[in-house]
């Protein structure tokens, strides 16, 4: 089953977006994978998202596409109770225009909350410095849920 098919099937799903993490962690091999998973705090991320054994998870990279329209598509693809987890780099300089954040491949925590709510999500949790990569970039965490 393709990830697109799984999303359009409307399964109760936890969608985790790591759009920029892949670009920040390019090392190859088992040892580097363990290191990457360590700074990404994967077990803590799954625990914070409430992921349980048997959960359906889609790791969706949105590339340069950000904003309400992408979030609305994800909202529509999820059943009631489905979750969206965003774990994205946060800007070093706050209060910049959206275009500057897109160029830097970061998400402003305040702006993403506005976008999530505009798309219909209920925001359950926000942590601005959830993880820090080896280059010192902080990654924020947002947990949102579909409540219809």
Q: Could you describe the 3D structure shown?
A:
38% of the residues lie in helices and 24% in strands. It has 148 residues and is of the alpha/beta class. The chain has a single domain, classed as Rossmann fold (3-Layer(aba) Sandwich). Strands 2-1-3-5-4 form a five-stranded mixed sheet, sandwiched between helices. Residues 1-11 and 18-28 have low confidence and may be disordered.
Q: What global shape is seen?
A: globular
CATH architecture annotation: 3-Layer(aba) Sandwich
The secondary structure category is alpha/beta
The total number of structural domains is: 1
Helix content: 25-40%
Uncertain parts: 1-11, 18-28
Determine the strand fraction and express it as a percent band: 15-25%
Work out the radius of gyration. 15 Å
Element-by-element helix/strand order: HEHHHEHEHHEE
Q: With helices defined by DSSP (H or I, 4 residues minimum), what is the helix count?
A: 7
**Biggest sheet details:** 5 strands, mixed
Stated plainly, the CATH topology is called Rossmann fold
**CATH C-level class:** Alpha Beta
Query: Between the first and last Cα atoms, what is the distance in angstroms?
Result: 26 Å
Quaternary structure classification: single chain
Instruction: Summarize model confidence as the mean pLDDT.
Output: 77
The count of strands amounts to 5
How are the strands ordered across the major sheet? 2-1-3-5-4
